[in-house]
Design brief:
alpha/beta, six-stranded parallel beta sheet, 9 strands, 12% strand, binds 5'-deoxyadenosine, binds FE2/S2 (inorganic) cluster
Protein backbone atom coordinates (compact mmCIF):
# COMPACT_ATOMS: atom_id res chain seq x y z
CA UNK A 1 0.00 0.00 0.00
CA UNK A 2 2.82 2.42 0.81
CA UNK A 3 4.27 1.60 -2.57
CA UNK A 4 1.15 2.98 -4.24
CA UNK A 5 1.42 6.16 -2.20
CA UNK A 6 5.06 6.56 -3.19
CA UNK A 7 4.29 5.97 -6.87
CA UNK A 8 1.48 8.51 -6.74
CA UNK A 9 3.72 11.17 -5.19
CA UNK A 10 6.37 10.54 -7.81
CA UNK A 11 3.90 10.64 -10.68
CA UNK A 12 2.05 13.75 -9.54
CA UNK A 13 5.10 15.47 -8.01
CA UNK A 14 2.72 16.49 -5.26
CA UNK A 15 1.67 15.12 -1.88
CA UNK A 16 -1.57 15.23 0.09
CA UNK A 17 -1.73 15.89 3.81
CA UNK A 18 -3.02 12.34 4.33
CA UNK A 19 -0.19 10.74 2.38
CA UNK A 20 2.37 12.83 4.25
CA UNK A 21 0.92 11.72 7.60
CA UNK A 22 1.02 8.12 6.39
CA UNK A 23 4.66 8.29 5.30
CA UNK A 24 5.80 10.02 8.48
CA UNK A 25 4.13 7.49 10.78
CA UNK A 26 4.77 4.23 8.87
CA UNK A 27 7.03 1.57 10.34
CA UNK A 28 10.73 1.48 9.44
CA UNK A 29 10.44 -1.68 7.31
CA UNK A 30 7.41 -0.55 5.36
CA UNK A 31 9.07 2.74 4.49
CA UNK A 32 12.05 1.20 2.68
CA UNK A 33 10.24 1.63 -0.65
CA UNK A 34 10.15 5.41 -0.18
CA UNK A 35 13.92 5.69 0.19
CA UNK A 36 14.54 3.26 -2.67
CA UNK A 37 12.31 5.20 -5.04
CA UNK A 38 13.91 8.52 -4.05
CA UNK A 39 17.40 7.13 -4.62
CA UNK A 40 16.31 5.73 -7.98
CA UNK A 41 15.03 9.18 -9.04
CA UNK A 42 18.28 10.87 -7.91
CA UNK A 43 20.33 8.28 -9.80
CA UNK A 44 18.30 8.92 -12.97
CA UNK A 45 19.15 12.63 -12.90
CA UNK A 46 22.62 12.75 -11.30
CA UNK A 47 23.85 9.16 -11.52
CA UNK A 48 26.41 8.07 -8.94
CA UNK A 49 27.95 11.54 -8.78
CA UNK A 50 27.95 13.49 -5.54
CA UNK A 51 28.62 17.22 -5.67
CA UNK A 52 30.76 18.85 -3.00
CA UNK A 53 30.52 22.44 -1.79
CA UNK A 54 33.25 24.11 0.24
CA UNK A 55 31.60 25.88 3.16
CA UNK A 56 33.34 29.01 4.45
CA UNK A 57 31.79 30.24 7.70
CA UNK A 58 33.20 33.75 7.54
CA UNK A 59 31.43 35.54 10.41
CA UNK A 60 29.42 34.45 13.43
CA UNK A 61 28.26 37.96 14.31
CA UNK A 62 24.51 38.15 13.82
CA UNK A 63 21.96 40.88 14.38
CA UNK A 64 19.12 38.38 14.56
CA UNK A 65 17.90 36.47 17.57
CA UNK A 66 16.37 33.25 16.20
CA UNK A 67 15.44 31.14 19.21
CA UNK A 68 17.07 27.94 17.92
CA UNK A 69 20.41 29.33 16.79
CA UNK A 70 23.68 29.29 18.71
CA UNK A 71 24.98 32.48 17.09
CA UNK A 72 21.86 34.53 17.96
CA UNK A 73 22.78 38.00 19.17
CA UNK A 74 21.72 37.41 22.77
CA UNK A 75 24.00 34.42 23.18
CA UNK A 76 26.75 35.96 25.32
CA UNK A 77 28.59 32.64 25.41
CA UNK A 78 29.31 32.69 21.68
CA UNK A 79 32.87 33.79 21.01
CA UNK A 80 32.56 36.09 18.01
CA UNK A 81 34.90 36.18 15.00
CA UNK A 82 35.15 37.50 11.48
CA UNK A 83 37.51 36.22 8.80
CA UNK A 84 39.48 38.84 6.88
CA UNK A 85 39.29 39.03 3.11
CA UNK A 86 42.75 37.44 2.97
CA UNK A 87 41.66 34.58 5.19
CA UNK A 88 38.58 33.96 3.06
CA UNK A 89 40.61 33.98 -0.15
CA UNK A 90 43.07 31.59 1.39
CA UNK A 91 40.17 29.19 2.20
CA UNK A 92 39.26 29.34 -1.49
CA UNK A 93 42.82 28.66 -2.58
CA UNK A 94 43.02 25.68 -0.27
CA UNK A 95 39.59 24.50 -1.42
CA UNK A 96 40.39 24.85 -5.10
CA UNK A 97 43.49 22.68 -4.70
CA UNK A 98 41.31 20.06 -2.99
CA UNK A 99 38.95 19.94 -5.98
CA UNK A 100 36.14 22.19 -4.80
CA UNK A 101 34.43 24.11 -7.62
CA UNK A 102 31.70 25.69 -5.49
CA UNK A 103 32.38 27.95 -2.53
CA UNK A 104 29.62 28.78 -0.09
CA UNK A 105 30.10 31.98 1.89
CA UNK A 106 27.93 31.58 4.97
CA UNK A 107 27.61 33.90 7.91
CA UNK A 108 25.34 35.57 10.40
CA UNK A 109 23.62 38.81 9.42
CA UNK A 110 26.67 40.94 10.17
CA UNK A 111 26.44 44.64 9.27
CA UNK A 112 30.25 44.93 9.31
CA UNK A 113 30.11 43.21 5.92
CA UNK A 114 28.48 46.02 3.95
CA UNK A 115 27.26 45.45 0.39
CA UNK A 116 30.49 47.09 -0.81
CA UNK A 117 32.64 44.63 1.15
CA UNK A 118 30.57 41.65 0.02
CA UNK A 119 30.67 42.75 -3.64
CA UNK A 120 34.43 43.31 -3.50
CA UNK A 121 34.86 39.84 -2.03
CA UNK A 122 32.65 38.27 -4.69
CA UNK A 123 34.63 40.00 -7.48
CA UNK A 124 37.94 38.82 -6.05
CA UNK A 125 36.79 35.22 -5.68
CA UNK A 126 35.24 35.12 -9.15
CA UNK A 127 38.34 36.72 -10.69
CA UNK A 128 40.64 34.24 -8.97
CA UNK A 129 38.44 31.20 -9.66
CA UNK A 130 36.41 31.89 -12.80
CA UNK A 131 35.52 28.22 -13.18
CA UNK A 132 33.89 28.09 -9.74
CA UNK A 133 30.36 28.80 -8.62
CA UNK A 134 29.87 31.13 -5.68
CA UNK A 135 26.99 30.64 -3.27
CA UNK A 136 25.97 33.20 -0.67
CA UNK A 137 24.18 32.36 2.57
CA UNK A 138 24.06 35.64 4.47
CA UNK A 139 20.40 36.09 5.25
CA UNK A 140 17.66 38.56 4.46
CA UNK A 141 18.65 41.64 2.45
CA UNK A 142 16.96 44.25 0.29
CA UNK A 143 16.39 43.31 -3.34
CA UNK A 144 18.93 45.96 -4.45
CA UNK A 145 21.60 44.26 -2.37
CA UNK A 146 20.80 40.85 -3.82
CA UNK A 147 20.97 42.41 -7.27
CA UNK A 148 24.35 44.00 -6.50
CA UNK A 149 25.81 40.67 -5.32
CA UNK A 150 24.45 38.99 -8.44
CA UNK A 151 25.94 41.66 -10.70
CA UNK A 152 29.26 41.22 -8.89
CA UNK A 153 29.19 37.54 -9.88
CA UNK A 154 27.39 35.51 -7.19
CA UNK A 155 25.64 32.49 -8.73
CA UNK A 156 23.54 30.96 -5.98
CA UNK A 157 21.86 31.92 -2.72
CA UNK A 158 20.78 29.80 0.24
CA UNK A 159 18.09 31.15 2.53
CA UNK A 160 16.20 28.51 4.44
CA UNK A 161 12.61 29.60 4.95
CA UNK A 162 12.73 27.67 8.30
CA UNK A 163 8.97 27.00 8.32
CA UNK A 164 6.19 28.02 5.95
CA UNK A 165 3.59 28.17 8.74
CA UNK A 166 2.94 31.62 10.25
CA UNK A 167 2.31 30.54 13.84
CA UNK A 168 5.24 28.13 13.78
CA UNK A 169 7.50 30.86 12.34
CA UNK A 170 6.57 33.14 15.24
CA UNK A 171 7.38 30.40 17.73
CA UNK A 172 10.90 30.05 16.27
CA UNK A 173 11.70 33.74 15.79
CA UNK A 174 11.52 37.03 17.67
CA UNK A 175 8.62 39.36 16.87
CA UNK A 176 10.70 41.62 14.60
CA UNK A 177 11.23 38.85 12.06
CA UNK A 178 8.57 37.98 9.50
CA UNK A 179 7.77 34.98 7.36
CA UNK A 180 6.22 37.25 4.74
CA UNK A 181 9.53 39.09 4.35
CA UNK A 182 11.52 35.88 4.22
CA UNK A 183 9.33 34.43 1.48
CA UNK A 184 9.61 37.72 -0.42
CA UNK A 185 13.40 37.48 -0.22
CA UNK A 186 13.27 34.03 -1.82
CA UNK A 187 11.04 35.25 -4.63
CA UNK A 188 13.31 38.27 -5.20
CA UNK A 189 16.36 36.03 -5.40
CA UNK A 190 14.65 33.84 -7.97
CA UNK A 191 13.53 36.81 -10.02
CA UNK A 192 17.07 38.18 -10.14
CA UNK A 193 18.27 34.89 -11.60
CA UNK A 194 20.07 33.12 -8.76
CA UNK A 195 19.95 29.38 -8.31
CA UNK A 196 18.03 29.50 -5.05
CA UNK A 197 17.85 27.23 -2.03
CA UNK A 198 15.25 27.20 0.74
CA UNK A 199 14.81 24.68 3.53
CA UNK A 200 13.97 23.95 7.13
CA UNK A 201 15.00 22.02 10.23
CA UNK A 202 13.35 18.69 10.97
CA UNK A 203 11.91 18.33 14.45
CA UNK A 204 12.07 21.98 15.47
CA UNK A 205 9.90 22.86 18.48
CA UNK A 206 6.27 23.17 17.41
CA UNK A 207 6.70 21.37 14.09
CA UNK A 208 3.74 19.13 13.16
CA UNK A 209 2.57 17.17 10.13
CA UNK A 210 0.53 20.25 9.24
CA UNK A 211 3.50 22.65 9.34
CA UNK A 212 5.52 20.14 7.32
CA UNK A 213 2.71 19.94 4.81
CA UNK A 214 2.91 23.75 4.48
CA UNK A 215 6.68 23.47 3.99
CA UNK A 216 6.31 20.94 1.20
CA UNK A 217 3.61 22.93 -0.56
CA UNK A 218 5.70 26.10 -0.27
CA UNK A 219 8.70 24.30 -1.73
CA UNK A 220 6.64 22.81 -4.53
CA UNK A 221 5.35 26.24 -5.52
CA UNK A 222 8.70 28.03 -5.21
CA UNK A 223 10.48 25.34 -7.29
CA UNK A 224 13.90 26.07 -5.76
CA UNK A 225 17.11 24.63 -7.23
CA UNK A 226 18.30 23.52 -3.80
CA UNK A 227 16.64 22.46 -0.55
CA UNK A 228 18.62 22.31 2.69
CA UNK A 229 17.13 20.23 5.46
CA UNK A 230 18.69 18.75 8.57
CA UNK A 231 17.61 17.78 12.05
CA UNK A 232 17.03 20.46 14.67
CA UNK A 233 19.72 20.07 17.34
CA UNK A 234 19.39 22.04 20.57
CA UNK A 235 22.18 24.48 21.43
CA UNK A 236 22.57 24.73 25.20
CA UNK A 237 22.82 28.53 25.43
CA UNK A 238 19.59 29.20 23.51
CA UNK A 239 15.96 29.24 24.70
CA UNK A 240 15.55 25.85 22.98
CA UNK A 241 18.50 24.33 24.82
CA UNK A 242 16.33 21.70 26.53
CA UNK A 243 14.16 20.80 23.53
CA UNK A 244 14.30 17.41 21.80
CA UNK A 245 16.61 16.76 18.86
CA UNK A 246 15.07 15.97 15.45
CA UNK A 247 15.34 12.33 14.43
CA UNK A 248 17.42 10.66 11.76
CA UNK A 249 14.44 8.71 10.48
CA UNK A 250 12.19 11.75 10.08
CA UNK A 251 14.94 13.67 8.28
CA UNK A 252 15.58 10.78 5.88
CA UNK A 253 11.90 10.43 5.04
CA UNK A 254 11.61 14.13 4.33
CA UNK A 255 14.72 14.08 2.15
CA UNK A 256 13.14 11.27 0.13
CA UNK A 257 9.80 13.04 -0.19
CA UNK A 258 11.51 16.23 -1.37
CA UNK A 259 13.43 14.23 -3.97
CA UNK A 260 10.12 12.86 -5.30
CA UNK A 261 8.50 16.30 -5.38
CA UNK A 262 11.50 17.93 -7.11
CA UNK A 263 13.37 15.16 -8.98
CA UNK A 264 16.20 17.45 -10.15
CA UNK A 265 16.74 19.38 -6.92
CA UNK A 266 20.22 19.74 -5.40
CA UNK A 267 19.77 18.15 -1.99
CA UNK A 268 22.54 18.11 0.61
CA UNK A 269 23.10 15.47 3.26
CA UNK A 270 23.91 18.06 5.91
CA UNK A 271 26.49 18.32 8.67
CA UNK A 272 23.62 18.34 11.19
CA UNK A 273 22.56 14.93 9.86
CA UNK A 274 26.15 13.73 10.31
CA UNK A 275 26.08 15.10 13.83
CA UNK A 276 23.10 13.06 15.08
CA UNK A 277 24.33 9.77 13.58
CA UNK A 278 27.85 8.63 12.61
CA UNK A 279 26.54 7.50 9.20
CA UNK A 280 23.93 10.25 8.86
CA UNK A 281 25.36 11.71 5.66
CA UNK A 282 25.70 8.31 4.01
CA UNK A 283 22.13 7.49 4.92
CA UNK A 284 21.05 10.88 3.56
CA UNK A 285 22.61 10.06 0.19
CA UNK A 286 20.96 6.65 0.24
CA UNK A 287 17.62 8.36 0.85
CA UNK A 288 17.98 10.61 -2.21
CA UNK A 289 20.42 13.44 -1.36
CA UNK A 290 23.17 14.24 -3.90
CA UNK A 291 25.30 16.98 -2.30
CA UNK A 292 27.67 17.19 0.67
CA UNK A 293 29.15 20.37 2.10
CA UNK A 294 32.45 19.82 3.89
CA UNK A 295 33.88 22.70 5.85
CA UNK A 296 36.68 24.90 4.47
CA UNK A 297 36.78 27.32 7.41
CA UNK A 298 40.13 27.62 9.20
CA UNK A 299 40.37 25.16 12.10
CA UNK A 300 41.06 28.12 14.43
CA UNK A 301 37.44 29.30 14.10
CA UNK A 302 35.64 26.01 13.48
CA UNK A 303 34.56 25.56 17.07
CA UNK A 304 33.07 29.06 17.16
CA UNK A 305 30.48 28.66 14.40
CA UNK A 306 28.27 26.57 16.62
CA UNK A 307 24.66 26.83 15.51
CA UNK A 308 23.96 23.68 17.55
CA UNK A 309 25.74 21.43 20.08
CA UNK A 310 28.18 18.60 19.29
CA UNK A 311 28.84 19.75 15.72
CA UNK A 312 31.21 17.37 13.92
CA UNK A 313 34.46 18.22 12.11
CA UNK A 314 35.41 21.13 14.38
CA UNK A 315 39.02 19.95 14.67
CA UNK A 316 39.58 18.61 11.15
CA UNK A 317 41.53 20.39 8.44
CA UNK A 318 39.71 21.00 5.16
CA UNK A 319 41.80 18.31 3.48
CA UNK A 320 40.83 15.74 6.12
CA UNK A 321 37.12 16.43 5.63
CA UNK A 322 37.50 16.40 1.86
CA UNK A 323 39.12 12.95 1.81
CA UNK A 324 36.95 11.64 4.62
CA UNK A 325 33.94 12.57 2.53
CA UNK A 326 35.38 10.90 -0.55
CA UNK A 327 35.95 7.68 1.41
CA UNK A 328 32.49 7.82 2.91
CA UNK A 329 30.85 8.26 -0.49
CA UNK A 330 32.96 5.56 -2.13
CA UNK A 331 32.02 3.30 0.73
CA UNK A 332 28.40 3.40 -0.41
CA UNK A 333 29.13 3.29 -4.15
CA UNK A 334 29.21 7.01 -5.01
CA UNK A 335 31.87 9.32 -6.44
CA UNK A 336 32.72 12.82 -5.25
CA UNK A 337 33.29 14.84 -8.44
CA UNK A 338 35.37 17.92 -9.29
CA UNK A 339 32.54 19.96 -10.76
CA UNK A 340 30.54 23.14 -10.12
CA UNK A 341 27.56 20.85 -9.66
CA UNK A 342 24.98 23.09 -11.27
CA UNK A 343 21.28 22.34 -11.30
CA UNK A 344 20.48 20.10 -14.26
CA UNK A 345 17.64 21.54 -16.27
CA UNK A 346 15.34 19.12 -18.07
CA UNK A 347 16.39 18.78 -21.69
N1 LIG B 1 19.90 22.92 14.79
C1 LIG B 1 19.93 22.61 13.48
N2 LIG B 1 20.04 23.53 12.51
C2 LIG B 1 20.15 24.81 12.87
N3 LIG B 1 20.24 25.93 12.13
C3 LIG B 1 20.34 26.98 12.98
N4 LIG B 1 20.28 26.56 14.25
C4 LIG B 1 20.16 25.21 14.22
C5 LIG B 1 20.02 24.21 15.20
N5 LIG B 1 19.99 24.51 16.50
C6 LIG B 1 20.12 25.93 10.66
C7 LIG B 1 19.04 26.92 10.22
C8 LIG B 1 19.80 27.90 9.37
C9 LIG B 1 21.02 27.10 8.94
C10 LIG B 1 22.19 27.91 8.53
O1 LIG B 1 21.32 26.32 10.07
O2 LIG B 1 18.04 26.24 9.45
O3 LIG B 1 19.08 28.36 8.25
FE1 LIG C 1 35.04 16.17 8.40
FE2 LIG C 1 34.79 13.42 7.99
S1 LIG C 1 33.88 15.07 6.92
S2 LIG C 1 36.18 14.55 9.33
Amino acid sequence: MLREVVDRIQKEQNISREDLALLLTAGDEEIACLKEKAREVADEVYGKQIFIRGLIEFTNYCKNDCLYCGIRRSNRCAERYRLSEEEILSCCENGYALGFRTFVLQGGEDSYFTDEKICALIRKIKAGYPDCALTLSIGEKEKDSYQAYFDAGADRYLLRHETADEAHYRRLHPAEMSLVHRKQCLRNLKEIGYQVGCGFMVGSPGQTVDTLYEDLQFIRKLQPHMVGIGPFIPQKDTPFGAEKVGTLEMTLRLLSIIRLLLPRVLLPATTALGTIHPLGREKGIQAGANVVMPNLSPVAVRDKYLLYDNKICTVDEAAECRYCMQRRMEGIGYQVVVDRGDYREQR
